[in-house]
Structure formats: structure tokens, C-alpha cells
């Protein structure tokens, strides 16, 4: 199954107090405007978070303000189909204000008996309990929707996280399974079991009605994909960068999602901030960057919008979307069937990290490896290592004995390894779990911060001075490795009894311990460099990692000139028909400014001139050019590498090597 490249997710969460729902809806104009905006799929609403339905039904949940006789959903679906546009259908799952108000016993309960979610006088959603009869209520609604629109193009189930509950329904179900409802861990375990069970149920319900339909359950933790992919036709990465997700969420998660063999897509929105930011229009440069970043990683694009209650679209929003999607359409010949080319496996430190946010290690690792132009996937500790030349264990990856043994065998077979913090060690940093690191350790340093001085042979041109390390290190001594930077301790640990100057205590003397070590096959950094980079943005952290990578992978896949913030990816298209095999190097340059707390805004496309690109390639290519313009680029082929230069990068450049 191939996902359409240019999608709209059309929210329609409309409260019952709005009385003119759909009065200005013009089905033909609606579809024409989508077509004019280069849209190929629109997710339209059967049921919203308010619990109301927007199609012809005798059920009392039909929106009370919906014009009598108007089947809004039917009008949308049929009009889109006439224009050749796909129309999957949206159903809200655990958010249903109608059901919560009319059946309060169905609300999920906290351990103290309070309802989960919105409380009296709040303006937020109440959360339903899937242990309760609400699940049957939802199944009946779903059955009616599937029958009315058979065969549906797809169903998008939203708000589907694991929801612990202490309701009577949940307690009874836990007791029958031998679980302890008083135990928070047992409540979480049961919530997960319930979620997997209803995903399996609703997936089967949809496929029984429409075997070719797509099915997706949103708001799930992406790190649980290994268990959940049987119930998903695709993987969607919802990430509104200025709406709470930030610009690190998509590039971290796409590198994990794409390893499961399912079609995958990114979802942003046209809003300045988050969902339903009416009147908030994103700058064109920001939406261009977000969609360019998606296609550079092989992801289809989805842009979120919310239809006005009266059923009218915002022309300014669709002028914005149409321009951006026109760019995507022009590039699709170089996107179809393209798959990522990677050589680095970044190990996910632990399951979890939340549904919305990435943690500091995730973000720091993504930023560091991106800034160093590395082509990497995110993998679980027990994942398949074949195809990777370098494995990175960031900060705190716990390894059981079997996984450690498998990694050691992989290194012995020619793989390369970098670890930091307590990765590859015991949790307290007193024992080495991966002997290939070539170090001995003596637990955590007594100093909360220290200093690092690069030694001879440090390749990245760092000044021979004491660079501050803001994070506590593991006391490390090389054995079969060599120190590339040594630790300098401060005079004393800063505290209320004794301190010196404004900030940290200055360095006093060398300790004989190593900040970083390197052997033929492995490198180690003695502090949590990845989460530390998220917190401190210390360039020296990046340069330590750069040195290790350059020594372990001297012939790395891609090198690209330019500022630190340049992003790159490498994709490969197989030969097909008249199309020859291609390798596509994506180069992105969209500098962002911190314009408000937690909002990084991209408003300008800043040209970047004369950018060098060097790609390891198995044979001399027949041509190198820029897509979609097909502008030829002069190139050289030497030492197994294609060398070329991009005259100017205006946001996003695609170098095609055939």
C-alpha cells in the first residue's frame, strides 16, 4: 500500500452550543478547493471529541446544530471522490463529551475516584474508560459508519493511549485477571492490555467491512510499534513543532518508525501554534521546511486544518498549503519507492519517552548526529544490527547479558561501537558490560562537573585548554583503548560552605582519568554527552563525538559543507521501467529563531551558496543533477566517492546521482 504524498487532516471538533453547523457548506466548492491546493487525501470527521456525529443518523449523538437533512460527511466524501481525492474517516475514541455527560459512570477514574481529564468548570476533555460499556457504544457507532460509507477508504481512530482507570469496570476486570487494582503498575499493565485488545477488535471490525481500508490508532507511544504494527496499515507521526512537539520530535521518531516496513507519514498543521489555533497561520517558510523534512526522510505529508463550523474553508490557509504541496508534487518522481540509506544505528535508551515529547537523550542524539551529517536509524537494544556499520549507545542504555553478548559478537565481526555515560556499563558505573570498550571504571565521579582537555591526535581542531563538562562523569581509565581527552578536576565541589566566583569552581589539576577513549573498534565518552547537549549546547560535546566517528568511520557515507544546522538525508530509488537506479541526497537549510518561549519560528528561506557534497558510491555515475529542475551538476569521481557542489541551496536541495 502506498500513501498519498499530499494529505489534509481536517479537524472538526465543534461544541453543541454552535447552532449553524454546515449552513454554508458547498460540497463541490469544498472539493475543488482541495484539488486546487494539490491535495490527494483528506481525513474527514464522522465523530469529534465532543462526541457528536456529522452524518445522516438517527442516533442522538448527531450534532444538535447540524442543519436538518444535511449529511455533512456524505457530502464531503462523495465530493472528494468525484475529484479523485481519497477520504478516510475520523472517529474519536477516548474523548467523548456527549458520552461523558450522559453516562458519567463510563468516565475513567483516578485512584482517588476523580474523573480523568476535565473537571467541573474546566475547558478540556473528559476521558472515557474502555473497560466500561462505552466500548460497545463506540463499536455500534463504528459499525454504523462502516455500513453507511462502505467501503471506507480508511478509519483514523484518535486519542487511543493506554488509560489506567480505577472505575468499578476496570477494578472488576483487573481482579478477574489476578491483578491488584491498588498497584499503579498493575493498573498501567491492565490499561495496556485493554488498549491492545480494542485495537485488535476495531482493526478487525474495519477490515471485515472494507478489506483494503487503512486503519490507524493515533496517540499511541511510537516505541511500542513492534507490538502494534499488526493493527496499523501505516505509521503516522503527529508533530506540530510550534504546538508542543518541537522540531526534534519528527526527525527522531521517523528514524524509528521507518524501520518496521510499513508506509509512514508526518503530520504537521497550518496553525501558528497547535490544533484549532483559529486565525493562526504558519509562515510559508516553516510549512515548506516541515514538508521538505518529511519527504527527505521518505515520509508522506499531512497538514492539519480545522473546518469552520459553518463548513467553509479559509482561502488563505489553502493558498499556503497549495503552494507547499505544489513543491511536493514536483518532487514526487524522485520520492516514489525511495528508501533511506543509513549506516549508523542509534539505540533507543528505554521504552517510553511519552507520546508528545522526546526526552533529552533522544533530542540530543538526534541533534548531534544530524549536525555531524550522519545517516542513522533509531533501533531498540534487541533490534537487528545487520546493515549498520556503527552502533551508538547513548548515555543510559541498559543491556541484559544476551544483548551485550550479541553486541560484542557484532563488534568482533567488524562492527564499530560508541557508548557514553553508563551505556555498556552497570547502572552505577562500577562494572563494564561491553569489554570491547577497552576501559575500566570506578563508579561516578564525586564532582558534579569537571573539565576535559583534548590530548594529542584530537582531530577536530579543539583548543588545548580545559573545556567544561557540565555533567557528572564515570571515572574511566583506558585499558585496551587510548585516552583522547583527560579529566581535570575542580578545586572542590561548589556548595554553601565553600564556593568561588559566580558559577563553577575552576579546574585545579589532571586526574589521570579519561573523558573519552578510543580503540580500533570502539569509542567511549565518560559523561552523558547526548542529554547534556540538549541541556547545554556545548560545542565541545559535539567535537568529542565527531572525533570518535571520524576515527571509527573514516569513509563515512556522506559529507556536506555548510553551517552546523544543515540537515541531510540519503535516499535510494530502485530502477523501474525507464527510470534508472538513483541515489538522492537531500540538503535542508531553514534556520529557526527562538521568537517566544517554546516556539522556534522559521519565517525566511536564507540562501546558502556553494555547498560541497561528497557521497560514497559504488561506481562512477552517468549523471548528477538537481531535482526537480534537472539542472546538471559538474562532478568528479575519485576514491569511491562522488564529489559535487550545489551552487545555491534555497531551503531544500535534492542532488540526484544516477
Descriptive overview:
The protein is globular. The chain is of the alpha/beta class and 658 residues long. α1 (27-36) packs across α2 (72-82), α4 (134-148) runs parallel beside α6 and α13 packs antiparallel against α14 (539-552). The mean pLDDT is 96. It has a nine-stranded mixed β-sheet. The protein folds into three domains: 6-336, TIM Barrel (Alpha-Beta Barrel); 342-552, Class I glutamine amidotransferase (GATase) domain (Rossmann fold), CATH 3.40.50; 558-657, Immunoglobulin-like, CATH 2.60.40. The protein contains 14 helices and 31 strands. Helices cover 25% and strands 25% of the residues.
Provide a concise account of the structure shown.
With 658 residues, the protein is of the alpha/beta class. Helix content is 25%, strand content 25%.
Looking at the overall shape, the CATH architecture of the largest domain is: Alpha-Beta Barrel
Helix content: 25-40%
Strand content: 15-25%
Q: Which CATH class of the largest domain applies here?
A: Alpha Beta
* Class per helix and strand makeup: alpha/beta
Order of strands, main sheet, comes to: 11-10-12-13-20-19-18-15-16
The total domain count is: 3
- The separation of the N and C termini measures 26 Å
Number of helices: 14
User: What is the overall shape?
Assistant: globular
Give the radius of gyration.
27 Å
Secondary structure tally: strands: 31
Biggest beta-sheet profile: 9 strands, mixed
Low confidence ranges: none
Multimeric organization: single chain
Amino acid at each position: 500500500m502506498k500513501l498519498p504524498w499530499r494529505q489534509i487532516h481536517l479537524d472538526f471538533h465543534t461544541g453543541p452550543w454552535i447552532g449553524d453547523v454546515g449552513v454554508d457548506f458547498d460540497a463541490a466548492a469544498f472539493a475543488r478547493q482541495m484539488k486546487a491546493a494539490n491535495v490527494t487525501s483528506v481525513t474527514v470527521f464522522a465523530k469529534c471529541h465532543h462526541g457528536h456525529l456529522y452524518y445522516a443518523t438517527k442516533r442522538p449523538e448527531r450534532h444538535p446544530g447540524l442543519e436538518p437533512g444535511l449529511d455533512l460527511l456524505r457530502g464531503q466524501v462523495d465530493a472528494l471522490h468525484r475529484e479523485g481525492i481519497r477520504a478516510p474517516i475520523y472517529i474519536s475514541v477516548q474523548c467523548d463529551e456527549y458520552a461523558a455527560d450522559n453516562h458519567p459512570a463510563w468516565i475513567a477514574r483516578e485512584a482517588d475516584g476523580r474523573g480523568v481529564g476535565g473537571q467541573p468548570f474546566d475547558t478540556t476533555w473528559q476521558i472515557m474508560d474502555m473497560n466500561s460499556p462505552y466500548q460497545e457504544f463506540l463499536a455500534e457507532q463504528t459499525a454504523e459508519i462502516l455500513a453507511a460509507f462502505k467501503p471506507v477508504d480508511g478509519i483514523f481512530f484518535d486519542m487511543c493511549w493506554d488509560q489506567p482507570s480505577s472505575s468499578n469496570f476496570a477494578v472488576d476486570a483487573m481482579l478477574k485477571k489476578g491483578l491488584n487494582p491498588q498497584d499503579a503498575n498493575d493498573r498501567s499493565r491492565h490499561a495496556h492490555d485493554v488498549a491492545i485488545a480494542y485495537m485488535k477488535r476495531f482493526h478487525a471490525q474495519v477490515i471485515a467491512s472494507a478489506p483494503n481500508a487503512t486503519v490507524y490508532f493515533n496517540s499511541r507511544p511510537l516505541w511500542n510499534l513492534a507490538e502494534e504494527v499488526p493493527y496499523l496499515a501505516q505509521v503516522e507521526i503527529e508533530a506540530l513543532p510550534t504546538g508542543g512537539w518541537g522540531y526534534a520530535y519528527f526527525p527522531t521518531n521517523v528514524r524509528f518508525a521507518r524501520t518496521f516496513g510499513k508506509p509512514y507519514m508526518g503530520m504537521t498543521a497550518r496553525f501558528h501554534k497547535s490544533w484549532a489555533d483559529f486565525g493562526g497561520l504558519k509562515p510559508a517558510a516553516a510549512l515548506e521546511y516541515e514538508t521538505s523534512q518529511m519527504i527527505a526522510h521518505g515520509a508522506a505529508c499531512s497538514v492539519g486544518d480545522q473546518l469552520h463550523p459553518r463548513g467553509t474553508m479559509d482561502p488563505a490557509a489553502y493558498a499556503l498549503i497549495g503552494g507547499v504541496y505544489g513543491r511536493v508534487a514536483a518532487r514526487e518522481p524522485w520520492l516514489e519507492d525511495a528508501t533511506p540509506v543509513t549506516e549508523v544505528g542509534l539505540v533507543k535508551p528505554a521504552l517510553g519517552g511519552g507520546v508528545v515529547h522526546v526526552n533529552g537523550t533522544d533530542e540530543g542524539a538526534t541533534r548531534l548526529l544530524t549536525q555531524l551529517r550522519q545517516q542513522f536509524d533509531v533501533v531498540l537494544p534487541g533490534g537487528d544490527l545487520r546493515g549498520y556499520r556503527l552502533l551508538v549507545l547513548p548515555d543510559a542504555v541498559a543491556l541484559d547479558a544476551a544483548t551485550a553478548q550479541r553486541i560484542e559478537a557484532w563488534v568482533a565481526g567488524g562492527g564499530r561501537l560508541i557508548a557514553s555515560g553508563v551505556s555498556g556499563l552497570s547502572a552505577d558505573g562500577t562494572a563494564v558490560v561491553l569489554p570491547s570498550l577497552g576501559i575500566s571504571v570506578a563508579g561516578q565521579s564525586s564532582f558534579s562537573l569537571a573539565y576535559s582537555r583534548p590530548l594529542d591526535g584530537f582531530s577536530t581542531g579543539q583548543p588545548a585548554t580545559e573545556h567544561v563538562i557540565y555533567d557528572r562523569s564515570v571515572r574511566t581509565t583506558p585499558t585496551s583503548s587510548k585516552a583522547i581527552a583527560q579529566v581535570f578536576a575542580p578545586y572542590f565541589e561548589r556548595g554553601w560552605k565553600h564556593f568561588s566566583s559566580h558559577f563553577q569552581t575552576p579546574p585545579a589539576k589532571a586526574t589521570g582519568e579519561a573523558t573519552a577513549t578510543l580503540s580500533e573498534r570502539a569509542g567511549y565518552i565518560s559523561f552523558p554527552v547526548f542529554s547534556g547537549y540538549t541541556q547545554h549546547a556545548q560545542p565541545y560535546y559535539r567535537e568529542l563525538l565527531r572525533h570518535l566517528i571520524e576515527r571509527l568511520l573514516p569513509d563515512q557515507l556522506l559529507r556536506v559543507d555548510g553551517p552546523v544546522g544543515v540537515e541531510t538525508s540519503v535516499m535510494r530509488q530502485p530502477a523501474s521501467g525507464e527510470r534508472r537506479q538513483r541515489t538522492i541526497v537531500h540538503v535542508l537549510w531553514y534556520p529557526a529563531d527562538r521568537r517566544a518561549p517554546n516556539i522556534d519560528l522559521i519565517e525566511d528561506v536564507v540562501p546558502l551558496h556553494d555547498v560541497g557534497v561528497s557521497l560514497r558510491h559504488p561506481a562512477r555515475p552517468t549523471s548528477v543533477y538537481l531535482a526537480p529542475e534537472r539542472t546538471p551538476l559538474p562532478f568528479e569521481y575519485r576514491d569511491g566517492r562522488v564529489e559535487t557542489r550545489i551552487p545555491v541551496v534555497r531551503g531544500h536541495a535534492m542532488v540526484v546521482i544516477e
